[in-house]
Amino acid sequence: DAVSYMHSRGCVHRDLKLENLVLRKCGDLGSVTVVDFGLAAAARAREKLEEMCGTPWYAAPEILVGKPYTASVDAWACGVGLYALLSGEWPFDFDDEEDLADAIVNEEACYDEMTCSPAALDLLKGLLRKDPSARLSVAEALEHAWFGDPSTPTRIAATRTSDSLRHVHRRLENLASSNPKLPRVIFAPGECLVSAGEESDFVYLIVSGECAVLADGGVRVGTRRAGNFVGEAPAETHGDENVLDGDTISPIPIVARTKSVGPDATNEGVAMASDDPTLLSTLHTLNAWVGGRRQVTIQAVTMVRAIKLDRNAMAWAVDADYRVQDEFQDALRRRRISVAKAEKAAKSARIVELKANYDSVIREYFDNAEDVAEVMERLPKASGATDEGIFVKRLIVWALDRASQRVYELACRLLCELHGQILSADGLHSGISALMASLDDLQLDYPHAPAALALVLSRISVDELVAPSFLPKLARDFVGASAEAVIITASALVNTKHGAERILRVWGGGKAGTTAHARVTYDDLLEEYVNSHDTAEALRILHELAMPHYMHEFVKRLLRRVVEHEVDRRRRKSFEGGDLGSVQESGRRLLDLLDTARGICVVSEDQYALGLSRFVDSLPDMELDVPRAGEVWSCIREYAQSKSIFRL
Predict the structure, then answer these.
(1) Where does the Protein kinase domain lie (predicted)?
(2) Which residues make Cβ contacts (< 8 Å) with residue 280, sequence separation at least 6?
(3) Sign of CA dihedral 524, 530, 536, 537
(4) For residue range 17-30, what is the model confidence (pLDDT) as tens digits?
(5) 370-505 and 515-642 share one fold
(6) Separation CA 2–CA 348 (nearest Å)
(7) CATH number of the domain at 370-505, out of 1.25.40.180, 1.10.10.10, 3.40.50.20, 3.20.20.150?
């Protein structure tokens, strides 16, 4: 409510944080008061500000990237504070401020581990939207369903935070009650708060009313209102007030020469947002304190109510403010450490279980079935490239342990079969990188590991499971004699004349059953089919190839062949657009072959969908070699749909 009121009166706080929320009454959360308007700025509706300021953990993305911003930065800060109260953690938490800023700008807050209600999550996501125009305003947040939910507790901080954060909550409650009894003074219009030439060691904090700053001869050079300190250190000139050098008032509220927000930045709306200015931060004023002889006169224009503070009183306010901030940061830090330990223990237990499951599947594959379909069914679902990398590493380590040519061949064939289906390129890279990182340790148990790993790397390169740039990248990422020897050997094997043929035969496997052999078979089959149109023979070859989990490559190569033939025909006949039904006969026959193969399940629906997806993804690269491939593909799609050949 206080922040909404501030915004309605044209004031942006710009430093909202939990440390700036205090209680006027012990134990009464209804008495929450917003304090410390040192960075507050006046802004009319839709007016944008540009000054970078605030506390890093609460800063909105638009501030960090240097864009003009509005009052929506306060809504973001409210979202950060609410996140901390509901979870006991920061939505973005890095010790390094550059990393913190990068996370706030580019990453999303994690809500997976939060146990609050769906309504609370929806409110948090609305307040923490990166786009200021899509972010909930404070007024909109007040209308959110969460505030009307009877299950929403009124004592959020006391019921939804960890034990350590409850301690901080009690400190915040005690802050107001520990406030020393500061003297309050009333000045009638015309009375002087400060007189030029007098000596004093205290300042006034104006609670209400207006004062004039009078220079020599009674010339009015400035105005002081609620929220301003008067009587502290000499200050510089700010805005257009032309304050004399050696003036004894602060020309801006609380900021005291650190951030200039203009003479009218603090008005009655700011004061009303916090009814007890004794709780305002006085850090800047304390730092600027010099005492001594006054050089200007401060005279009440209206009835003025003020609080009189000496150095001890101001030191108390600063100390209390720092104690609360330090305790809150310590509580969050302890909570993060506790959560991190629990997550690490849970992750370790999960990885141990995952490795055991992988070992069971790999052992069965090597010992008995050699059935890829069964392996795919039994493999536990990976949660990302890291899990897939663990499987790849376990597979190769098992092969190293058995040190059999048959096992090495089976391991590489399995990687070929799984690649592109349940094994991603990132997962394969992760596993190979893990093997390279642990090569020195592996060599202690398996002296032959470097030589075997070099062959594995060369094999996955020949089978096109990795890009040609993969081996050079490994050479940059891993240094050391063992790693360099492995990479140099693998590169030499791949680049040697007839190297691919030798690599495919090194473990006695020959070409049969490899993906490289399958690709050659697919190309020969398609070329022969275009000339002979023998569907039965083509289906027989596909069946005898016995690689049902690599049929996606057949689909991709068939569709590419159709597009290439059609582009070539149109180029030769200078055909532009025209009848979609004029797809050449060879293209129609290839599409018919694919439709027939799907109909008798030689090509499964999953393999067809995967092959189609891979082909579509490859179109941008294909157009570099085959201009207008994308345009021709669109025509082929429409032709196939119009003839009901099959769904493309």
Answers:
(1) 1-147
(2) 35, 36, 37, 205, 227, 254, 274, 317
(3) negative
(4) 888 887 777 766 67
(5) yes
(6) 46
(7) 1.25.40.180
List helix spans (H) across 45-184.
Answer: 61-64, 72-87, 97-106, 118-127, 138-142, 145-148, 156-159, 163-177
Alpha-carbon distance of 19 to 283, in angstroms, equals 14
Q: Cα dist. 5→142, 228, 587, 632 in Å? A: 12, 20, 70, 61
What whole-number distance in Å separates Cα of residue 515 and Cα of residue 494? 16
What are the tens digits of pLDDT across the range 496-537?
A: 877 777 777 667 554 445 666 778 888 888 988 888 888 888
State the Cα torsion 459-464-468-474 to the nearest 10°: -50
Model's pTM, two decimal places? 0.38
Length of the chain: 648
Q: Distance (Å, rounded) from C-alpha 211 to C-alpha 251? A: 12
What CATH number was assigned to the domain covering residues 2-87+89-160?
A: 1.10.510.10
Cα–Cα distance for residue pair 403/449, rounded to 1 Å: 9
Which DSSP category does 187 fall into? Answer: E
Q: What are the pLDDT digits (tens) for 366-384?
A: 876 556 777 887 787 767 7
User: Which H or E run contains 454?
Assistant: helix 449-462
pLDDT of residue 164: 39
Give CA–CA dist 25/399, Å, rounded: 70
Task: Report the amino acid identity of residue 441.
Answer: D
- Taking the chain (648 residues) in runs of 10, the rounded mean pLDDT of each run is 83 84 73 79 67 81 85 91 84 81 87 82 91 89 77 41 43 45 85 82 83 83 79 40 31 28 32 33 42 74 88 60 53 63 76 88 76 76 82 92 83 86 88 91 88 90 85 86 88 80 65 66 88 87 78 89 84 55 72 86 85 87 84 82 62
Any idea what DSSP says for residue 390?
A: H
Distance CA(57)–CA(60), nearest Å, equals 9
